[in-house]
Amino acid sequence: MGHAGAMPTDALTALSGLDVLGLPAGAWLLIFGASGGQGHLAVQLAKRQGLNVIAVASGADGVALVTRLGADVALDGHGNVAEVLARIREVAPQGVDAVLAMAGGETLDRLTEALRDGGVLAYPHGVQPVPRERPGVTVRAYDGETGPGQLQRLNELIEAGPFEVHVAETFPLGRAAEAHRRLQTSYPGRLLLTVT
The whole model's pTM is what? Predict the structure, then answer.
C-alpha cells in the first residue's frame, strides 16, 4: 500500500513527459536520471509504449534497477561521459529521437550531443540546472498533468504487466529530518515517509 502511495505524482509526471515527446513505437528515447523516483517509472511507462529506452542511471545500483525494469541499454551516468556517449552512439548511430531529463547538470548537457537534429528534450519544471538549449534541438519544460483521463491512462499502462515502484528506504515521520538529509544523496527509486 505504501508503494502505491509513493507513485501517483511521479508516475503522472513521467507520463506527461512522454506525452510531450509524443514518440512513435520503435523510437529511441534516452532517459537521464532513469533510476530516480520519476525516472524508474518513466522507463517502465516508455517500454509499455513500445519505445527503445537508453537509461542513464546513478551508480551500479541504479544500472541494476533500470536493467531489471526493462531498459534496452543501461548506463552509469557517474562514469566517463565520453564512454557513455560512445555507447549511446553505438546503439543509436543516427542519434536518439528524444531525451527525457529527470535531472540536470553537465553530464546531461554533454549527452544531448546524442540527440539527432530535430530531436526533442523534455524536462519537468523544477529540474536544476535547467538543460541548455542547442541548435537543432527543441527543449520543452512541462508540468505533470492530472485528471480522470490521465489517471485512467496511467492505470491501463500499469495494469499491462508487472510494475515496480522501487522504494530505496522508508522513514517513520519522526525521522523526517533524516529523510530530508538522505534526499541530498544518491539512491535508486524513491524514499518513503510513513505515518503510523
Answer: 0.89
